[in-house]
Structures are given as structure tokens and as C-alpha cells.
Fold:
Amino acid sequence: FILYRHQSDDNSSITSNHVNTLLKRRDGNVWVGTFDGGLDLFNTKTKKFTHFKHHLGNTSSLINNNVLSLAYIGHQKLLIGTEKGIDQFDETTDVITSYKTDNPGVEQSVGSIFFDQGILWLGVYNVGIVKYDGNISSFAHYFINTNPSGELNNNNVNTFAETAGGFYIGIDGG
Structure:
């Protein structure tokens, strides 16, 4: 194993020692989502990190520096789940677009992302699952109160795992 640590005197080192999520790109480089340092792109050949962070007042930067989840939706479109909403990073243009609710008090912490056949599944802390079907431009929301049969017994969705016929959902409590 090789250990990479933040070095305050080296701008090409990782931005934080608190890593939340990793995602390998097609070119072999690795996206690194950190707790407090934003998003890094690790170049596996040069062993250097490129940084993407939230900058106050800059709507073209990350919405938040606490990156919790990463997933690709199509070719070179990266979804970035953060503590304050979700960003989309277009790798061909280096443009970041942020999405968040305008409802104050509504939790926006996107801890998990799963994309399959045009359907986007988001695990949102204390909210449950938000499903967006891009094929028909519709939203659905699944949370503990709407599932009396017990399919979802907690609104803290931590992860999704693909299976041959669908996916598993990992939540607090089961």
C-alpha cells in the first residue's frame, strides 16, 4: 500500500486526509471525495492531485467541500454528492453545475448515488431515497412513512450495490 497524506507545502498533494469516497475513471485516474477538502483528481502516472473546491460566491465551483458520493451518469458526466446538494461535473468542458433544493430546512446531504438505464437513485440523509427517471422526466420519493410494508425502515440511506437484477440498498438499521 502507498499512503498519500496532505502536505501543506505541496499544492499537488491530496487536499485532506479524510477520504469519504473514491471512483476510478476510464483512463485509470481516480476521483477522491474528501470530508473537508472538496474533490481531488489523482493522476496515477504523475502521482499528483488536481483540486476542485467550493469558493464562496463562485457558482461554478463545488456547492460544498464535504464530498460524500460519486457516480458517472453517461460519458464523462460525474455526479458529486455533497453535504449541501449535488453537483454535476462535465469532464469535457470542466464545468460544474450545482443542484439543490430551495426549501430551507430540507436536508440535502447526498450520501449515495446509483445510476442505471437513465434512472438516478439518490440516498439523502434523513430523507430517504429520491428517484429521478430521466427517461420520462419524473421524480419519486421513498421514505419510511410511505412504505407501510417495511421495505425502507430508515431514512438514512448509505449505499447502493448493483446486482444482476437490480440493486441492494444499505441503510442505518439494516
